[in-house]
Amino acid sequence: MSDQQDLTAYIAAFVAELSITGVKDVVISPGSRSTPMALVIAEHPELRTHILVDERSASFFALGIAKATRKPVALLCTSGTAAANYYPAVIEARISRVPLIVLTADRPHELRDVGAPQAIDQIHLYGKNVKWFVEMSLPDKTEEMIRYARTVCSRAVATASSYPQGPVHLNFPFREPLIPKLDEKLFELTDRTGRYVEIQTGRISLSDAMFARIAEELAVYKNGMIVCGQIDSDDFTERVLALADILKFPIIADPLSQLRSGEHDGRHIVDTYDAFLRNEDAKEALKPDVIIRFGAMPVSKALTTFIKENRHARQIVIDSGAGWREPTMSANDMYYCDEALFCEKISSLVDYVPETAYLDKWLALNDTARHQLIGIADTEELSEGKLFHLLNEMLPEGATLFVGNSMPIRDLDSFFLFNKKKIRVMANRGANGIDGIVSTAIGVASVSQPCYLVLGDLTFYHDLNGLLASKLYAININILLINNNGGGIFSFLPQANEPKHFEMLFGTPLDLDFRHVVAMYKGKYDLIKDWTHFSKTFTENQHVEGLKVMEIRTTRESNMTEHRNLWKSVSREISAMVKGDET
Amino acid sequence: MSDQQDLTAYIAAFVAELSITGVKDVVISPGSRSTPMALVIAEHPELRTHILVDERSASFFALGIAKATRKPVALLCTSGTAAANYYPAVIEARISRVPLIVLTADRPHELRDVGAPQAIDQIHLYGKNVKWFVEMSLPDKTEEMIRYARTVCSRAVATASSYPQGPVHLNFPFREPLIPKLDEKLFELTDRTGRYVEIQTGRISLSDAMFARIAEELAVYKNGMIVCGQIDSDDFTERVLALADILKFPIIADPLSQLRSGEHDGRHIVDTYDAFLRNEDAKEALKPDVIIRFGAMPVSKALTTFIKENRHARQIVIDSGAGWREPTMSANDMYYCDEALFCEKISSLVDYVPETAYLDKWLALNDTARHQLIGIADTEELSEGKLFHLLNEMLPEGATLFVGNSMPIRDLDSFFLFNKKKIRVMANRGANGIDGIVSTAIGVASVSQPCYLVLGDLTFYHDLNGLLASKLYAININILLINNNGGGIFSFLPQANEPKHFEMLFGTPLDLDFRHVVAMYKGKYDLIKDWTHFSKTFTENQHVEGLKVMEIRTTRESNMTEHRNLWKSVSREISAMVKGDET
């Protein structure tokens, strides 16, 4: 049987190692079984603890910190369904490749599957959605088991951090008594005071011969394009720009590629393709013979369709995570290689191309479409599209823009165009859920300021509990709530043609006045009356601390009409232009 | 490839069968991939649909209906993390044996694990926490596949309903286009218009020879007790009372045994054991030689300890679900047999015992403890214990009382004593989570009126989203919110002796004024000032529709002091009494 000394020594060694390996933040949900781990973590001088009662919100909050810092964040909860509430965030972390260390307390073996309180089967609780699962031993202070606690910890952090990053799950059985002995020497390690095992993760790379072959093959193509989906690496940005410049390939830049903002000149950036790739003339004019893809599959459905329609082109996908981000079944080549390294190597091997007509065509069409799209600035009514256009102008330097799924991410794609500010754009695009968005954004905001979140009313409602973190930890967050009273995206889908049951099943108006809930969380709430009021409040709020919600009420119908009209006007201009070129 | 005809015919057959097999309620969360199933369900004239955006709340709401009706309830959501949000309720349903039919829409095979949007691995998403998982075929209108859809549906409902009841999961891959053709003949079945397979589930029973042996063996024991944990079956109540009367065994009745309320005379019911089994003199006086247990393990820790301390006694556990509800490692015999049937058979085989001193001892101690406990009625301050005492008197005939975990269930155990009203008492005691309680109770309320929910502030906060159902569907629910600003139970646990970090990790005050959120959901809110105000509001609210929240503010410290003082006074009286008996 383990006693207080076993408990204390074993957990202290684990927690000491957690900090040594670089974990800074632990998000804890209160509970009894997790007491020993919670107390020891709270006692550690270098771990920052965040206590959040709703485990679903807690796990998305942790996801947000990990996304923003690209470093593993630990989560701790008690036994039972508490741990099951982590499931959505764990899946999102797995697919969007975010490092999380999930620590769950459990009943010891003799209290499992026998009807004991708060006991569920926690072995492989998250199935294949974690990179690694370990059922830990009971606490034990022998030297061997202290080494075990430290090496498992070190390995867990390394596994979560190595590419593709992702969640790991360690399940800790604890017997009563659950109270460790806290004293000053708690974290004094008797053996190897640094990291127990120094773990170095190399970058995945192809051989020089293979790079040479790829470079040689690329020289054949005249009409090449680079597609960048969600990717968040400083190295990569610089190098893909260099590669595009050498090859004179346009970069089709998803809003989450981090290429639509920044200090570079944006010479090769195409950012309005979602509008003009709906036009047949444009698609005909832009047929590529090679497509090089980096990052996740972009948001734009028009782009996905274009890729699928060009299966004759050589399609190359580069993925440092050695996955299969390729739903189009178009790829000819899948290169498992660090993306920045790939760009660097190929750039050094191919000849500089002074210019290509193909790039010029993309850029010209992009200019034309951009000209139409920014016409949205003239809209007097409150509109979802114009909001993103304005954000482009108004977001302060260094801001993070977090965007909800469903409509906001699509409007971001359409209207948040290239700018020279340093804006980091984020979203939960692993599983594209409407769950946990508030918490993820507030997690981001806890380590990255200023932070702006744009989301719809259903998404806001889904994670209202997430607002608590802002109140408890005085985290500044600017929420731009687009309230069209229901699920706006369905108006764009075939469901909209079936009026029977439409409002009930898809429109789903909630009729909630969110002013109340913002008051409960001690936030500042403003119902935006018009764009002047918006600008004024936006500016004013930059000097207000804590939670700030600006609600922008729109209607689903007018939003759809506005989008359709814009796409039509883009299409008209694009057709005129393409046909003008031909004559 | 499947087309609209395949889609329509296959799903219509499935949904027709769902209704034929007796499913009445479907809780749907909006989404795109689930469109065909949602539209066909909405079209069915006999299925009642409930649309709830937050899948976690939706699934607990479904759990509530299923608990109250003891009939399977269907759940439907779209692909992605939507389905992962069902996990806590699925686990609760599995452990507390509640029938749920979980229907999840999924991407078709070619869009899985390739980075397509909103696609996660849904195969065996809930692991071992469902009784049955089926990856459905793609929609197909051939006669063979219509038979397949109908038989799988029929089998799913039967599997969920048979003992032990529990959740099943059917995963439906759907390809675009997702719109079925709704017409008048949608649910016309061409073959077997009734249930496709008539499934009859028998009751589990021992052989007559075995019953005879058990009856014979029971005759040997003088000091026998019956322990009833959570169980909810009308048959059982009557028969266990008859058995107790024949054997003259006391029934130690957990508040969830449904034995503490009802029209019977309560002659053998012991309901204050949690108070007096903390006393060594009582425990010494009450040593049993046989313990017969039915239902889940009771809430009372004092009772569990007493059972463990009496391993010399013959301990018999009866479980119709053929599980292992036995964390004490004390059972000598485990009988997998329908509980009502067991009582009936044994009653018919054993001789009538006119009286036992052992029963008299239990009842005398129970009377003494009861006398002390109802002294709480004199408390002038707002107190958690007195609330349950008052509910005993004030709850209207036929009410359902739903109780949150952590402190409320324990106060229920201590203070909600035997009464002759028809009160059904419910709680989520599978995994004892603080998640989903509001939704479960509102699900119960949607089919059983009047309904009262007593819960603490952390539990209320955890599922605030659950309040939406009351607003959307005008469901009457009376919420008695005990707000002690944090986790009250920890004051009773050893953690309370560690002042360092206590408030941060365990006290966790949220400092929320819930008045605001009740206003958002258009509910009636009252902050209770004193017991007179409580009575007045309680009575008044019986004539108010919709959501009603009565907030009772208490302090964790005074609650703990009150409980400790009461236990002490019970113990003093009990000791005096036991010693008096001996002299």
What does this structure look like?
- The structure is a homodimer of 583-residue chains.
- Chain A is of the alpha/beta class and 583 residues long.
- Helix content of chain A is 41%, strand content 15%.
- In chain A, helix 1 packs across helix 2 (35-43), helix 3 runs parallel beside helix 5 (87-96) and helix 8 (234-247) packs parallel to helix 12.
- Chains A and B meet through helix 2, helix 4, helix 5, helix 17 and helix 18 of A and helix 2, helix 4, helix 5, helix 17 and helix 18 of B.
Protein traits:
Rossmann fold, 15% strand, six-stranded parallel β-sheet, 18 strands, 583 residues, 22 helices, homodimer, alpha/beta
Give the C-level CATH assignment of the largest domain in chain A. Answer: Alpha Beta
Return Rg of chain A in Å: 26 Å
How many strands in all of chain A?
18
- Helix count from the secondary structure assignment of chain A: 22
Kindly report how far apart the N and C termini of chain A lie: 88 Å
Shape of chain A: globular
Q: What's the overall average pLDDT of chain A, rounded?
A: 96
The structural class of chain A is alpha/beta
Instruction: Please give the most extensive interface between any two protein chains, plus how many residues each contributes.
Output: A-B, 88 and 90 residues
- The H-level CATH homologous superfamily of the largest domain in chain A, spelled out, is Thiamin diphosphate (ThDP)-binding fold, Pyr/PP domains
Assembly category: homodimer
> What CATH architecture label of the largest domain in chain A applies?
3-Layer(aba) Sandwich
**pLDDT < 50 stretches of chain A:** none
What do we call the CATH topology of the largest domain in chain A?
Answer: Rossmann fold
Largest sheet of chain A, in brief, is:
6 strands, parallel
Indicate the proportion of strand residues of chain A.
Answer: 5-15%
Share of helix of chain A, binned: 40-55%
Sheet with most strands: strand arrangement of chain A: 2-1-3-4-6-5
